[in-house]
Amino acid sequence: MKEEISNRIKELRKKHGFSQRYVAENLFISQAAYSLIENSQNGIVADHIIKLSGLYDVTTDFLLKGDKNLIRMSLSNGFVPFIKASAHAGFLKDYHMENWEDPYEWFRIPGFNPSQNQKLFEVEGDSMAPTVLPGDILICQTQKKLEKILDGSLILLVTEEAIIVKRLKLQPDPDYLLLESDNEEEVENIKISKNEIREVMMVRGKITGLLVPHHEIASKGKIRALEEALELLKKEVFKLNKKIAAMSN
Questions:
Q1: Read out DSSP for 182-217?
Q2: How far is the C-alpha of 207 from the C-alpha of 200, rounded, in Å?
Q3: Which of 161, 181, 231, 234 could form a disulfide with 186 if both were Cys (CB 3.0 to 4.6 A apart)?
Q4: At residue 213, does pLDDT exceed 90?
Q5: pLDDT digits (tens, 9 = 90+) for 221-230
Q6: Distance CA 96, CA 107 (A)
Q7: Kind and range of the H or E element at 168?
Q8: Contact between residue 135 and residue 141 where contact means Cβ atoms under 8 Å apart
């Protein structure tokens, strides 16, 4: 088995075009010590297996046993970490830890092209109803440049104390973000200092279990038709007023 493991890590190193020195530096050992591992003269410890798994983006089972049917769940393989509502507090607590992603579930989303800066958040609370509802899952992407966020964009803020989903309302104060809710019952906007913000994420989409009943779709269609008719009536009244004003002159 030792020889098989040595052959696999040697093949992976050559496939990625890495030198023995480079791999040895990642394992925090000398090149000579690493060379002995590749040549099956020395065994390999668990810590090195884990580091090589991350370096080559393969499973530890592949390195140890050659199993190829196991997919390593990582950002580079199209998986996105999912932070449930019940895990929000833990996420905030471990935010600065190197391995904060380990406790979370990972998912692939059909039709969604993930990147290194994306996460899934389960919504709690109804401050953004009816746009997003409790239990909806938001697909979020980190936005490091605030000036690129358009007025009215739906964003998720990670602060020292909370995870907040709101709309960004542009305002002249450069030191604060002004946030507003889609829920008509919450009329007051929230003002947050930029110094309190750990991360700003754009909401790119959502996954929901809610289906709109057929009668609501029909009602919305009627309302939309009434709104269009009212807009047309306003234009006709405006034209008529212009004609009356011209006749008066």
A1: S-TT--S-EEEEGGGEEEEEEEEEEE------HHHH
A2: 20
A3: 181
A4: no
A5: 666 777 777 8
A6: 22
A7: strand 163-169
A8: no
Nearest CA to 117 out of 218, 183, 199 is that of: 199
Is the separation of the CB atoms in 138 and 203 below 8 Å?
Answer: yes
Residues 110 and 47: their CA atoms lie apart, in Å, by 34
List the structure tokens of 47: 């810590």
User: Which run of H or E residues covers position 10?
Assistant: helix 2-16
**What per-residue confidence (pLDDT) applies to 97?**
81
pLDDT digits (tens, 9 = 90+) for 98-152: 777 777 888 888 877 777 688 999 999 888 988 899 999 999 999 988 888 999 9
- Residue recorded with tokens 């935010």: 95
pLDDT for residue 216? 56
pLDDT at 222: 65
Q: What angle do CA 79, 76, 72 make, to 5 degrees?
A: 65
Mean per-residue pLDDT for 139-168?
Answer: 92
pLDDT digits (tens, 9 = 90+) for 54-85: 888 888 888 888 776 556 677 777 888 999 99
Question: Measured in whole angstroms, how far is the alpha carbon of residue 246 from the centre of its chain?
Answer: 58
Give Cβ neighbours of residue 114 (< 8 Å, ≥ 6 apart).
Answer: 75, 78, 79, 80, 108
Q: Is the peptide bond before 130 cis (omega within 30 degrees of 0)?
A: yes
Closest CA to 220 of 228, 210, 232: 228
